[in-house]
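Hi X.,

You mentioned you wanted examples for the new student's onboarding notes, showing what a folding record looks like when two proteins sit in one file. Here is a clean example. The first protein comes first, with its sequence line followed by its structure tokens.
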Amino acid sequence: RNVIALQLCLLSFIPLVPRNGGVLQSPVFTKQPGSIVYPVETLERNREVVFSCEAKGSPPPIYRWKLNGTEISPKSGSHYSLSGGNLRISHLNKDQDAGTYQCLASNSFGTIVSREASLTFAYLENFKTHRRGSVSVREGQGVVLLCGPPPHSGDLVFSWIFNEYPTFVKQDTRRFISQETGNLYIAKVEPSDVGNYTCVVTNTVTKTRVQGPPAPLVLRSDGVMGEYEPKIEVQFPEVVHVAKGSTVKLECFALGNPVPSITWRKVDGVPFPRKVDMRKASGVLEIPYFQQEDAGMYECVAENSRGMNTVKGKLSFYAPPHLIEKPQDVQKLIDDSLVWECKATGKPKPSYRWMKNGENLESAEERVQVANGALSISRLTLADMGMYQCVAGNKHGEVYSNAELRVIAVAPDFSHNQLRSQTLVKVGGDVLIECKPKMSPWGVISWRKGSEPLRESNRVSILNNGNLRIWNATKSDAGLYTCVARNQFGVANVNVCVSEPTIITTLPSTLDVTVGESVVLPCQVSHDPSLELKFTWFFNEQLIHFGSHGGFFEKVGGHSAGDIMIRNIQLRHAGKYTCAVQTKVDSISIAVDLVVRGPPGPPTSIHVEEITDTTASLSWRPGPDNHSPITAYTIQARTPFSLGWQAVTTVPDVVGGHRLTATVIDLSPWVEYEFRVLASNTIGTGEPSKPSKQARTKGTSPKVTPANVSGGGGSRSELVITWEPVPEELQNGPGFGYVVAFRPRGATGWMQAAVPSAETSRYVFKNESIQPFSPFHVKVGVYNNEGEGPFGPVTTIYSAEEEPGRAPTRVRAKSLSASEIEVSWKALPWNASKKRVLGYELRYWSRSEREDTASVQRTVGNQTSTIIHGVKGSTTYYISVRAYNTAGTGPPSTTVNVTTKKPPPSQPPVKVMWNTSNSKIILNWEQVKALENESEVTGYKVSTHRPNVMETNTTSVELALPTDEDYIIQIKPFGEGGEGSSSRQITIPRIPGQWRAS
């Protein structure tokens, strides 16, 4: 045998679990304490606070707490107690319990420390001074009234009462209350300011409020203060540190006469952003959402007519630390090395320290190093296990990040580095058999062949990393090899064995097929019978999913063949096909190039090189020939007036496959054309190219005249001429119009009129001298901006005629039924008097209607009678008749009237019965009685489904027996008013029966 194979035997890995069956887990905080500000005033009612702390872990964590770095002992009788991880402090003492608290959570993996949380007490004491002296100033002088807030803890809000509560001082450009000092500033005192002023201080935490003693403000009697320049009394510090995202308020106010105006600006000249509302920035400049770009030097300017004064201060940006790279839990082998990176942003730049199990990490060992936030430990030992915390901090805060280090010592284990159970090598080739067990610490690796220790030689060598290398392999090297790994914790081994290599017997090839055909791509192999084969096909390096791809691909190979068939091949199927064969121990592949011949691809770069009024010269570039030479090109065109693409005539008549230019002829002038080209080869015609850019042929004089020239009608003294407009594609250029020529029949000279609109289809010539219904010779020509075109053929058109001049006579009207009236008249003679008659118009209206709302009915030709349908029964109608022609209607005849007959019976025949007698059917029904307002019943009509009707004046009829189909019968009464309501349908079957009723 010419190959070597190795068989691997794996050990199982068993994870450690606690006794309760859950997976072991180091502690992780799910809830950490937050700072608390406690109002002292509530101590009498409730003297208890709770700091929250919660961590998950297995085993469950045990909790401890520190106050100002010293551990607290929640013992019996102590005012500290634990509920889970929460610290409850009862019987609060503001002197003993104020400070910084931290929670510690520990389990068998180590200890972690929470962030710091402070407990402070807010309070506000009363003012100590009970009386203040008067403040005496001149009118026009500025004054400052001091507040002097009492001892307190927590933020304060200041206001001032003027004389008596609830009258408070309102701030404006002249008066200002500083929320930094509480002082009241009046830029220029007026007589209305005289009175008592009381400072009111409110603690925002405790919500308590205290008032200072009143301070009287009086005016001096030694004159009025003159004007003087601004003096800034309220200033902001030279440097103000502002946290990222916070809101900063700068105060600035000046005394002066006149009252100074306060403006703000940045010293660097950069304008304030939109978030700063300058309309409110008088004594206070407020900058919300403070960011790095807001930092810089700010200046307050106080100005009046006597001068100007300024004050400057710097806003310094700071940001507490924010971790951007945190250490992650890690598991290492003994003697490995560890490097943890910890990075944070912040201003000032954060410093770093590391903690292990809740204590600062201070190791004298050289193998433990901390530098710029990174912790590195070399040659790990079991003593290095535990919980580590990176703490990044600056003067504005600290952030903590936790990570667990596990150090493990394990016996040799191959479960994480499983080897192939077989390894193949050709005779004379080289093979490397890896042996990479997991073991800690690293031990000794040896090899056996069969049951004997492996002897090394110049061809067989065990490398320093434990792998086995065999050079120039022979058949004798085949066999079972075992890798043995050993350290002080145990021994493990792994085996390998031998098999034949898999070989593809099909040779690489190139297949050539035509679109629409089917082809088989072969993939034949020889292989070790004990190994199972898996065939996988790729098309242009993309996996083929059989059953998809539109059903084109189908597997047709047997056990040792992976052949596939491609049915109905398309151009897109051309490319590289790869057959990959896999077994458990090796893999091999072969490629087949498939060439698909098909119709050419679309030509490209279609250009109109030159265009005249009827020709266009085209050029193009060939598209892909798809492996079959192009034999001919076809050119198509379309216009806004064509139905899609149409083939065009070219020069040469047949455009060969070697040509890339042609001239299109027989085009219409002044029409926008698009052209496209299609290529053909022996297989077929391909897809068309993209259309060329639109190109308009040049204009020329028109050649086509309007069709269907006719006319006539119109008003008196008019000659109306009509025609069908020439289509736009036949107008041959811009400025298209018509020339209308006409003359009386028999005349020699022509009169002409230009109609400049291409869409116009009518021209009216009006002249009082035109006699009614006179014949004219008419012809219509065409023109455009390029010149005049021809005239169409001459046709005869009559001028407008006069309406008939006489009224019909002998008008008679007769009621035929309740809904019909017959009207007759004497026809008017028709002669050549220009007042011909085309027909007659009847107008009729009922007694309850007006004549101007009459209904109209027309006849055609020389008809002398007609019937009006749809009138109402028992109603009087008035009727007049007049003749008409194209000019209108003539005078009306004498009006006649007629009353329609009563309506027909409304009740249908009932109790219809039938019976057979010999070869007849006898029908009987009950007589219908007309109502008082209905015409009398004079008979009945019996109809079958066949087109025949019988009439009778009795209430019975005899019918022949139905021999081939059923009878469907209806019966209607009738009288002089017409037919009445029908009975229900009666069905008489072909088989005669006894009396039946319906």
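Then the second protein repeats the pattern, sequence line and then tokens:
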Amino acid sequence: MMISILDQFEQGVGSRIKIVPSSKQLLDESFDKDTDLQRIPILSKKKVNFSPSDKIAQLLVSNEYVVLVMVNNVLLRINLKQDNIEEIDTLKTSSLKVKQLFLDPFGEHLLISCGNISSSQLFYATKQLSKLKPVGKYQGSEITSVAWNYDYRVKSTSSTTGPILLGNSSGAIIETQLGTEFDRFFQGSVVQYWKEVFDISKGQPIPIIGLQYHRVGKSDLFYILAITPTKLYQFIDFIFNKDERPMLQQIFNNYLTIPERFYEVPTVVKHSKLHFYFLNNDFTAPKYFGFLTELGVFVAEIDINKDEKTIFSSHELIEYSRLYGRDDDDFTVPLSMTFTRYHVLLLFPERVIAVSLVAPADRNASQVMDEDYCSDSYGRLLNITKDLMTGTIWLYAERAVFRYKINKEDRHVWKVYLDKGMFEEAKEICINNPHRINQVLVRQAEHFFNSKQYENSALIYANLNVSFEEIVLKFLHLNEKKPIKLFLMKKLHGLNSQDYTKITMITLWLIELFANELAVLRNSKQGKLQEYTTLQESFKQFLSTSIIQDCIRKNWESIYDILASHGDVSFMIWLALENQDYKRVIQHYLNEENIAEALTLLDNHPFSELFYTFSSDLVEKAPAQTVSILIKQGQKLDPLKVINALIIPNPSERLAMEIIRYLEYSIHCLNCHAESVHNYLISLYIKYNKDKLMNYLKLQGREITAVSYSPEFALRLCREHQLGEACVQLSIVLGLWEAAVDLALTISVDLAKTTASLPNNNIELSKKLWLKIAQYVVKQNNDIEQAMRFLEECKFIKIEDILPFFPDFVTIDHFKDAVCSSLEVYNKDIQNLKEEMEDATKSAEVIRSEILSFRNGYMLIQPSNECSSCHEQLMTKAFYTFPCSHCFHAECLIKEMQPYVDSSIINTIKDLQNQLSTLYQNNKDISQSLEAINRRDKVKESLDKLLAAECFFCGDIMISLIDKPFIEDAVFEKIKQEWE
């Protein structure tokens, strides 16, 4: 019984092969597992626990489904997944002999070619059929090959094979589709259609030894391979209607008018088959195919060229005579073959050998990588076959079945690839072995270097764990600098951010190399503009990489020194701009007198520190543009710091006017009140624009606490420049009224009058100032008429005030009218005083009468009256009543007032109540002393003043609470939740 075959096989192999796993792989030269692998064979077989009842004739395996036929025509079908063996003896009593078995790659469909001397017949079966069914009673030429349908959709519907091709011994290719579903509708036939689509024989019977067809990926392109004893045919074309039956005839139809394409091959052995190898068992992408000839194994890699109608472009013949690296004329043709990933397994009568598909670089080296000898105790070895779905390899003899396990078959192949210079293929094999991949890369880098492919060599060396100095020295000897640049750049990107020293060194070195190349191209007379531009862009891209940004920031000076040493000013500017080093760029523009560029940069990249640093230089060279840019920044700039840059000794008038423009903007638009700003503006006004000074001073006002400038400073400057009117205004601000009037009189009497009229709230001062003016007018001009007009203008001065200023010879006639007017005024004032006295007397009499009426007033308290606070009967306790009719118990009134009056008042009230209570308790006798009564009355009077001064509900206390919320914030949320 073939029970638990897979488990037994794995256990058997595991007992023979044990590899101790390593904790980690090291890149050290001494570490390599190849030494251990030498003791492990590539081919490791295990006998399957199965003993046939008779000699095995043929065996096929697909998708863990085994079909075998014995010499007695007994057919066994074994499902390895279910450990189930089924015997079909339909052919036991037949005169037909089983010639060949054909099992599809999914293990669903089986074709059996039978025959005898006179006839041949074809039978069909599936997993579900318990007996064989004839295929349309086919009795033509013997079917020698089958091209199965490899479409996975066919596997999902196991009731039909899909379109397949059959090749017979006469050279005909037949397309058909078989399935059990047709059995129900076509009276027992399993054939949907049967059509001969091509004939290779051309009238002379030629057996088709191998036949396969495949679809190229998911495209509509299909190709067909067929082998005869001497030729390999290839057919390729598109099938646009895949529902048409027969489907594959669409390909052959194209070859009815053109000769078919074939390739002459050495004589193909009769027992050969057409074998395909599918990478990762992907049936949509076969990698290579092959078959046995009398001279060697024909192997070709699939390379579809739909334009040239070819399936492969080159092939290789692995000669039997050269398998061991020496000429051997006495060689044996293998019985069978099958492919693995890197080997072809050849079956000989006594052994199985693994032959490398890649020929060694040394022609005298053996191509046989392993040999497995078999005992003849189980009879002759018959065949070696492969399960395409699982990749397992089966070997069977007449009385035994074996399974092979392939162990690390790539152990030698990578070295063969390496020796032949096929580095990419070697890397693909060694991808998971750091030690091997390092060897491959070293050899590849050396190969590129020796073949002068220096750039490729540099890129590989950069990824290797080799001496940095050694590699650098190799490339430094070259005249071309691009390889060392590539090496350094690749090495740089492989560093971690912690390797700061290495990053800095490589970065500076690369900058030097770039700068030198650019300098060479700039100095070149050939003017290689395109090359220069490309190199410059590459340099910019390098400097923009994130790994070196921190290095650039910390090594500015060194980088600028390198660029400066090569005279690359434009690149220095670009680099500074890219890294926002605007200060350096602006300074460069200033040094070059390129003021326009400096202003443009400052305008496009407004950093406040740049304005504070360069405003002084820029405003001298371009005043209007600089001030406009400063104004454009608005509140982003601190006017105080800007002024520090704009303080320029002895500026030109044009420059001063622009500075004034910025100062006015700062004051009027930015509301700058800094004293230094205002003082600077005043100083500029005094020197360059006196007309605006008085407007400024008037806008600032006369209050010294409201002005933003220093009045003392401004007054000193105005005196130095003899600005009298401004001095008058500043004296007023400083409160020097008398000095202001004196100074104003030196300018004009009208100015003095205006000055004297300003202090309206101070009558005495105003009178004093007006007297100064009057004295000046009288004494200086000696004009009595003007003095009389002056009296009319000033309401504070009378004729008697200015009389002392007139000379003694002046007669009274000049003042008669003024004296009369003054006397009339006095008379009116006396009359007004009398009227006011009479009104006051009447008001006093009214107040007296009201006081008398209040003394005799009373309120009637009813027994039913309630306290306005507690709503209990009023007369049960001491109470207070108010004219508004509100009544309160004394204690209720105190309780109501307590939250709204100072705690000191409440404490005073309680203290007075305690004193009053004590006085009542100590004086219960009927006869009380007058002193005690007076004392008690005083205490009561004091208490009444606090409690009964006004009604709590109607007085000032309640009015002052009008803006207080009914519910305090502290308890609002609590009350809100209660209501919810």
